[in-house]
Predict the structure of DNA-binding transcriptional MerR regulator.
Amino acid sequence: MRISELSTQAGVPVATIKYYLREKLLPEGERTSPTQASYGVAHVQRLGVIRALVDAGVGIAGVRKVVGVLEEPPANPYDLLGAANAAVTPVVAADIDLSAATALLERMGGDAEKCFPDQVAAVAHALAALDRAGFTVPERVMDAYLVHLSAIAEAELAATPDRSIEDAVRYVVLGTALVEPLILALRRVGEQVAASRRFGPSGG
Amino acid sequence: MRISELSTQAGVPVATIKYYLREKLLPEGERTSPTQASYGVAHVQRLGVIRALVDAGVGIAGVRKVVGVLEEPPANPYDLLGAANAAVTPVVAADIDLSAATALLERMGGDAEKCFPDQVAAVAHALAALDRAGFTVPERVMDAYLVHLSAIAEAELAATPDRSIEDAVRYVVLGTALVEPLILALRRVGEQVAASRRFGPSGG
């Protein structure tokens, strides 16, 4: 198909597609004349991934990393997960006290030294922000986070497709970044459902 | 204390404190002379809340809403939760198909009509972004999200402090917005722990 049809099918303006081509986020189409190229289903899919990441707030540098993982997926599944995670994880300053984060990880059954440093640092940063606000997560609530987020992670991992490496990368990358808004939205709705159950629908 | 000491205690520059005063996010201090005012512990706490929200990516308009809730908390706990949630929830376009989101809510034991529209719309937007990316959450994984996020929400609600309305507002507002980075970070770490358990630490 021509670029105009690709634009229609993917719902992405032609100028934006050209920008992605220049940035090498999207592979070149097959040249059919000096001024025209032909695009296929793979381009539509790739545009879907790019737009979804951009919509989820991932910057161009992050999109570039995801595209890199999609184009050259690592062979070991654990490294694959790490590369995919890293691609969509903002780099945070690592000069932070990791002890509280490390202790939480141990309670999840993990080992901070075997985890990717950015992920442990992200936990430490989240804890530090709560501290700065003078907010303490009640112990029973923290227990609930550790138990139920571990269970979610196990379910996600168990469902990783093993048909092809492309499928697995796609699942991990998109599942990590794009599912986050869903998880947060479901938690907030869940809080309302719980509140409505406890306090009745509305006062006024 | 003077503004300079407030600045030191709260770790916020004097110029920023003056900006918050002008924006009425921070109440005026007690005048001690035409050019000086005295600040107390309440100012330190309020600055902690403001900085934490700003650090968590909440804009000034959102901070203003949270401050409004803190200063005039609604009487009904359910409305309180809604106001607090709304204060830290970005407004999303509501012209979106809510049917899939409504169905998920029912599976959580909730009723979309009793939930705040922005929250239901947020679920719908998250689902639409996944759709656009061509990503389907496997059914068993979606089940895990619904079950475990409901359990997290119940635990959070059960721990809402009832000593004072200020405590409850503070808990709900900060607990909603500030805990999100922790939840996302713990999920990602949880995925690594699960992957390491399944595939061994690293290949290379």
Summary: The radius of gyration of chain A is 21 Å.
